[in-house]
Design a protein that fits this description.
2 copies of one chain form a homodimer.
Chain A lengths: L2 E13 L2 E13 L2 E6 L11 E11 L1 E7 L14 H14 L4 H17 L2 E7 L4 H14 L2 E5 L1 E2 L12 H15 L6 E3 L2 E2 L7 H14 L3 E5 L3 H10 L6 H7 L10 E5 L5 H10 L2 E4 L1 H6 L7 H6 L4 E3 L11 H18 L9 H13 L16 E4 L12 H11 L5 E6 L2 E2 L2
Parallel strand pairs in A: 1-4, 5-6, 6-7, 7-9, 8-10, 11-12, 12-13, 13-14
Antiparallel strand pairs in A: 1-2, 2-3, 4-15, 15-16, 16-17
């Protein structure tokens, strides 16, 4: 079904400050792309099949800008640790298990199913260092109908033997992986994924910079998440002005030909923020993770004001829940605490702002994604919010607020990615 | 069924620092009271019916020390406001609707059903100023099988006409209410409930102090939640040393014959904390609400160190979720942010501490409640945590951690209150 019409209570984001909504509206899909929202269905679309979801919310699918698929299995464990201890205790031993492709297939299937059934329609996802298992993850995501960028992780130092590559090996496996998967799937593509600076030698980063230039693929990594981590990066890259500058030295920090996502940015200083802005680096704001690992609270209001591109990340398993509804609630909550306790010049996030981040903000990393405006890829889901006892009484904006705080995955009753109906 | 045995993976709290657990253990119930936990079932209990929940977690029921039943209906709305504006905009108009007993019956039934199906087995709950509707709430709670203390609210100033009593009227209705409900229900009892100091004149508070002495019922209210509120109380009670001292002036702040719960205590100063400790006032820590309404983060580590009695509150609808699993997760999370951002002398809460607060800590307001130790009322629920892919791999303590972050109400598959099986 390439052309169809969705009917229901539509809500989408025009910009961070403005929600758009249309009660009992019509959203037209043509060839996987929005042909706009209408109060009355134009005659020219009247022959299209009409999917009538009257009384239900229809929202743009969410883009999870940062998640670790292999960590889904042990989510919500070891949350009493900070980042570096948590990596050593839980993450590295668990990720090492993905050398076994059978383990990978079984456990990645669970992660993909969790993502498939909830409100997220696409994501930027870390695998592990293992090429074959990462390819399995990509295959499973494509089969699920979701859209994603997926990274084979690079790590050649500061991790246990069972989860560390040789420098040459890491680069070679990455090239082989890119050659195997580039262009293979219509909706799942590779993204270069140095884990974070402490995991990669200068030599490896240099090779990755060259690989990026050669294959023109985007980049994802971590930036300025935790105090001990930032101090460690300063030790490891004494010549760099800041954490971001160290990535930049190797050509892995944005710019026109290197779309880049950096997760966290809790502790970025003025110079790093200026560099992100200059290079158009996307920030993946991961509020739940930053709280769980006691990293702190990113200055999201500042990033919005400076118009740095930004979306939300579940950061499974620093975060525990895939659904970006939860990330929106947490983003709002921690922004209130930051305002109250740290800096009252940075106002809390509003509902429209949090919604923007989960939809159009993060979606922009994939192009025209995350809105119902004409020309945007038709990612959408239908939410049955009747459990909250809403109907007939609340505005669509109020229903959105309630969904942010109350929704559960089983209330997502239909889902579309680029116009394909998943369920 | 007065005597029976529960079998499963048991976990309970000895004290804030120590979890107890027993895999494949036996919990014996005799006449609604725990007769202890056993690795092997003693011969003398062998004739009791055995309810075998092998592989599932069995935990003490949670005590929600602070919730507003009439606010359940509009939970997760107006979360962009602080306390006083939120009360005026949402709470007061909604609570006024409970003058209509049909509205009350319909909407209280929804709140009670939400509480019934989740992990909470008892709570201290605010109604509204309306005597008849409050009695309906008590009736519904008793019918549900839950245990509760319920308060008809007192308000004779600073609220709209539709939600304000005369001073005499408030006192008289309170007396009539107590006379009507005291001793009426085995598991639901009255608790005196001045809304908060700005809602009650000195004259009313004086009358309530006398009512408390006459009828020997406990007291619940709010304390030092929000900056504007605290400043307002200082204006209204210029003679008082602090917010708590103003309650105390009227005999409504703890002591041997006046068990008292105060919700929030975000901004309590040293003198107020000392007075709470002296009088044995229970704190209802409501982390989600304190974040949602941008009130701040209570210094829970300090309260634990000073051994002030304390439990958790959902604070529906400053909080959005009834389940105290969620309050536990939020309590841990905000304690990490407070430690990281405000005062690193107050260490974050641990899993055992948060679990203690939800069980034995808050349960203590009801007597021997919230543990499986011998002599404790048998409040318990069975949690099917198989969805998290745990079985055979994690310790009970680790499974508890995951349940705190991941559990959903529909995973509560059996529930017991004072030995009565609700489902």
């Amino acid at each position: 079904m390439k052309n169809f019409v969705l009917k229901g209570d539509l809500c989408w984001s025009r910009d961070p400050q403005h929600l758009e909504s249309r009660k009992n509206g019509y959203l037209v899909c043509e060839n996987g792309v929005s042909a706009g929202v209408y109060e009355t269905l134009p005659e020219k679309y009247s022959a299209y099949p009409l999917l009538d979801y009257a009384g239900k919310l229809i929202l743009p699918g969410f883009t999870d800008l940062h998640a670790h698929a292999p960590q889904y299995r042990y989510r919500a464990l070891g949350m009493d640790l900070e980042l570096l201890e948590w990596l050593d205790t839980h993450t590295f031993p668990q990720e090492a298990l993905y050398q076994d492709t059978a383990h990978a297939r079984k456990n990645y299937a669970r992660f993909v199913e969790e993502m498939r059934k909830g409100p997220n329609t696409r994501g930027c996802i870390f695998g592990t260092i293992h090429r074959e298992s990462t390819e399995i993850l990509m295959e499973l995501l494509e089969e699920s109908g979701l859209a994603a960028m997926v990274g084979k992780v690079n790590m050649d130092r500061h991790s246990p033997d069972i989860l560390r590559e040789g420098t040459e090996e890491s680069a070679e496996e990455t090239i082989r992986w890119i050659q195997e998967v580039q262009g293979k799937y219509p909706h799942v593509t590779p993204i270069l994924t140095p884990r974070f600076l402490p995991s990669c030698t200068d030599a490896l980063l240099e090779k990755l910079g060259k690989i990026q230039k050669k294959f023109h693929i985007p980049v994802q990594s971590h930036l300025s998440e935790n105090r001990s981590e930032v101090a460690w990066v300063q030790e490891l890259f004494p010549q760099s002005k800041n954490y971001g500058d160290a990535y930049d030295h190797f050509g892995l920090f944005g710019g026109e030909n290197c779309p880049t996502i950096m997760a966290h940015c809790v502790l970025s200083d003025d110079a790093e923020i200026a560099l992100m802005k200059e290079r158009g680096v996307f920030i993946a704001h991961c509020p739940e993770s930053n709280t769980n690992l006691a990293s702190g609270i990113a200055p999201v209001r500042r990033y919005l004001s400076e118009e740095i591109p930004m979306g939300l990340g579940s950061d499974i398993a620093g975060g525990t829940r895939c659904s970006l509804f939860y990330a929106m609630a947490e983003a709002i909550r921690v922004s209130k605490l930051r305002w109250r306790l740290v800096d009252d010049r940075l106002a809390p996030l509003t509902i429209p702002e949090a919604f923007y981040l989960a939809t159009k903000g993060g979606g922009a990393f994939f192009g025209k994604v995350g809105s119902f405006e004409e020309g945007y890829l038709l990612d959408a889901f239908v939410l049955d919010d009747s459990r909250y006892d809403n109907i007939g009484e609340y505005t669509i904006a109020e229903r959105l607020e309630r969904a942010i705080y109350l929704s559960e995955d089983n209330e997502v009753c239909h889902k579309f990615v680029e116009g394909r109906q998943l369920f």
